[in-house]
Amino acid sequence: MGEWKASVTVRVKPALRAELWQFATRERRSLGNIGATLLEWAFEQLKVAGSTERLLHYRIRPAVKQPEVVGPRGTSREHFFTARLARCLWH
To answer: Which tens digits make up the pLDDT trace of 5-33?
Structure first.
């Protein structure tokens, strides 16, 4: 059936709880589900970093949209290389 899970209690500031609840509502998840997902992800990041001190020095960069590179005949670069790969595979 399902996986057994253990209960964890965490104390957070009311403002953080409210923001987490808003995200959970927007994604149609429960507050517990959002908390568990974030905890699992954060722990994986902590294991890679090796310590909380090193983890806290990392920064998440905002996503920067790359400009569309145009290939031959006005097609996108992705379409160009996908079409080229398809031709190689089928000929």
So the answer is: 899 999 999 999 999 999 999 999 999 99
